[in-house]
């Protein structure tokens, strides 16, 4: 460290101090790639604990485990933040089949998160295939009433950014059941949000919004191969029937927690910088890419600062948010408390796009701060991060309000992210140790630079 | 296409024609991501045919299959180029164990490619652990004679570029048995060239060079976990013994082929541009990342040009090289024939670093050509390719000599490449369809630009 301070005197610092910062990033990467804990934390979160659905016993185990691991890092403070969260359970495994003149062909489905159950004996009805919510209006009640609406608009393969393809198709899952209900549908089947053709159904939250509870209809996702089969079958047999049975249920809200670890700032303890991911996951897999990766990377950032003996100017918090998947209650609660305590947040970084090789950052900031961060690109060049663009940060930090705050999302390679997203194969094996570590190092590097030169 | 030619008139072309080329790349990517064949070709090469060790029946099947698939593309010419290749076989599965006071602990090993067998009953000897070939000299015959030399220098995790880490450790495998033999060792165990700790031994060629055949000693790779165990055991029991049995054998050279498909140039048919990968693979897995990916991407480049009705100015050849892994006979033969036929090669592009998300290209060219290619970066920006650096092209195109030739290697993300490289898990599942297609599109885009504006 000494050598660095000497060098500091020789260089002027415009935006960043080349040699000091280069060395600091080198140290961060060196430690992250040779001496990390994040992969073994992820192993525990996924293989020992498992899927961490909000409100579940596993989610509580994840709270306890991460709190205890943070406590081992010698931080200034580790604490829990209470938050009431939804409690939805999938119940027994769903069943579904296509029925064509008494022949039944099973297809892989799963209930959408927060969906209601079917009646106990299931629903059996004709299917109407649509490709958009708008199409419901065109078809009208006459053609929809009593049927199962099948949303089958695929994610667009031709888009280079899978995230864009996801957002382009996501309304079918989020709003499909609510909107189809308005036209008298008795259930909804949604093509899984994935760019692959395979047998995995992908869950994810649906929102009934403000329609009366009596009008809630069950929604399920069908695997992409199942969707192709159903669509082809409908072309030949437009009057085929579809059977769906699911027994998911929403219970009373329960108490849960955001887990927070903190290093106090040496110069501006009142200025707070957040790095985070979300602790909860869907229940089909074990939430490794989404978002065990982001959780352990955030913890690793604090760990790296401790082992490098880096003493931040500002207070740095790792926040492991609860309930991103079906409510964002943790993110909202964190903001509420920040307002109540009149906390001054200057920066928030979230990792919730998977643990693949990092490619850069998406930046939600005013033009001055955006330009400042983009000015650091040369420092990231040796680590092959090139994307520093305006964009969405993360669902958990998005609610965070402050006078001036920069919010950033880690941007990993996401070409295969949606192969795993919300599905049974989102397990430990899907995450590569080096890629995970490179992400943690990129995050720590950006936190360091923001701490040194961040918004004025 | 018409619209494009109109636009062409409106723009001056310095280095490239922005709107025409932007549109051409867009068309290439669109087709590659929505209408490719490469993934199903790879499925056949790996799952139906399997590992394609040079000189094996499977390698011949791969020749027949790719020739027949190329013939379906409506190219101007598809042909085979004869090449005599080595024929080495692994034989029965290898066995190895650590013996500590009569207790035997099995460890995963595999013979290095081209290695000789052990005597039929195996070898059992004390082990001497080293970390470099230089260390052999320091130790000398006295300490090495009669022992098994264990090369245990890991690939360097702290390096950002796994390829660099691979090259940094590769001499142990390539030269370890040859060099250890000079000091009287009776066998060599090499730590697998992988950045992961796991149970897969990774094979790869070793070279005895010009030492007498009577001095060839057997070489095997041990899994990284096995290497850790052996190293730890040696610290406690320096006189433990290691048992190795392998029955691999080198036979007479056999006749094999490079497979070549060609689109004749419309303006300069005498100028030749090559795109290629290698058909052969190691035998433990099914050679999906190494190098089934490169083979099917090269075929896809020609297919994309055909379906886009792109008529190249120069002659474009896909060359599927035989025997990259243990001899590079295909690459050398291709060059020999090119010289004999006085062919004028202006460009060669190889994909032999895996089928992961493409990040750019490594360029082996003079400064003028390098700068020209780097000038195309803005065209690749929308496709998230950023790395355009001087570097190695590929083992098969490296031998190719011509008056002026630019040689390039596709540079994919390689963070997880060495998890699979030369090991039993290099199978179809390791390759993601989109990532493979993005690589093919990047290759086709560069071929297009080189064809339009290439050297001079």
UniProtKB/TrEMBL annotation, chains A, B:
Pfam families according to UniProt: Peptidase_M28
Question: Which keywords appear in this protein's UniProt record, sorted alphabetically?
Answer: Carboxypeptidase, Endoplasmic reticulum, Glycoprotein, Golgi apparatus, Hydrolase, Lysosome, Metal-binding, Metalloprotease, Protease, Secreted, Signal, Zinc, Zymogen
Q: Does the keyword Transmembrane apply?
A: no
Q: Which GO terms describe its molecular function?
A: carboxypeptidase activity; metal ion binding; metallodipeptidase activity
This protein's GO cellular component annotations are: extracellular region; lysosome
> Peptidase M28 domain: from which residue to which, for each copy?
258-445
Q: Which GO terms describe its biological process?
A: proteolysis
Where does this one sit in the cell?
Answer: Endoplasmic reticulum; Golgi apparatus; Lysosome; Secreted
Grouped into one coarse class, the protein's main location is endoplasmic reticulum
Q: How does it assemble?
A: Homodimer. The monomeric form is inactive while the homodimer is active.
Q: What is this protein called?
A: Carboxypeptidase Q
Species assigned in the record: Flavobacterium pallidum
Q: What is the lineage of its organism?
A: Bacteria, Pseudomonadati, Bacteroidota, Flavobacteriia, Flavobacteriales
């Amino acid at each position: 460290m000494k050598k660095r301070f000497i060098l500091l005197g020789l260089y002027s610092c415009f935006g960043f101090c080349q040699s000091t910062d280069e060395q600091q990033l080198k140290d961060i990467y060196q430690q992250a790639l040779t001496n990390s804990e994040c992969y073994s934390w992820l192993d525990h979160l996924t293989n020992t604990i498992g899927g961490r659905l909000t409100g579940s016993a596993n989610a509580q185990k994840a709270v306890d485990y991460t709190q205890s691991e943070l406590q081992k890092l010698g931080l200034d403070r580790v604490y829990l933040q209470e938050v009431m969260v939804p409690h939805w359970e999938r119940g027994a495994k769903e069943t579904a089949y296509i029925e064509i003149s008494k022949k039944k062909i099973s297809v892989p489905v799963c209930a959408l998160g927060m969906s209601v159950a079917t009646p106990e004996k299931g629903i059996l009805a004709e299917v109407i295939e649509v490709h958009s919510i708008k199409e419901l209006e065109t078809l009208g009640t006459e053609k929809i009433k009593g049927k199962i609406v099948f949303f089958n608009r695929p994610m667009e393969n031709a888009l280079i950014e899978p995230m864009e393809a996801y957002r382009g198709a996501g309304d079918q899952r989020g709003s499909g059941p609510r909107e189809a209900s308005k036209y008298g549908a008795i259930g909804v089947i949604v093509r899984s949000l994935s760019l692959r053709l395979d047998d995995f159904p992908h869950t994810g939250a649906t929102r009934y919004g403000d329609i009366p509870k009596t009008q809630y209809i069950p929604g399920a996702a069908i695997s992409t191969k199942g969707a192709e089969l159903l669509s082809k079958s409908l072309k030949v047999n437009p009057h085929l029937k579809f059977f769906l049975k699911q027994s998911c249920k929403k219970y009373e809200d329960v108490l849960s927690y955001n887990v927070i670890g903190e290093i106090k700032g040496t110069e501006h303890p009142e200025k707070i910088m957040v790095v985070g991911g979300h602790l909860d996951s869907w229940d089909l897999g074990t939430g490794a890419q989404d978002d065990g990766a982001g959780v352990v990377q955030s913890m690793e950032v604090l760990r790296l600062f401790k082992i490098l003996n880096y003493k931040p100017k500002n207070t740095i918090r790792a926040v492991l948010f609860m309930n991103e998947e079906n409510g964002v209650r943790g993110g909202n609660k964190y903001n509420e408390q920040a307002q109540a305590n009149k906390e001054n947040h200057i920066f928030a970084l979230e990792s919730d796009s998977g643990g693949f090789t990092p490619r850069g950052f998406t930046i939600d900031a005013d033009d001055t701060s955006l330009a400042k961060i983009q000015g650091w690109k040369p420092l990231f060049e040796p680590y092959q991060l090139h994307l520093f663009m305006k964009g969405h940060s993360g669902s958990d930090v998005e609610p965070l309000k402050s006078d001036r705050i920069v919010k950033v999302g880690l941007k990993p390679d996401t070409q295969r992210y949606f192969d795993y997203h919300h599905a049974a194969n989102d397990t430990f094996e899907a995450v590569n140790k080096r890629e995970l570590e490179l992400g943690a190092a990129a995050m720590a590097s950006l936190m360091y630079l923001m701490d040194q030169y961040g918004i004025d």
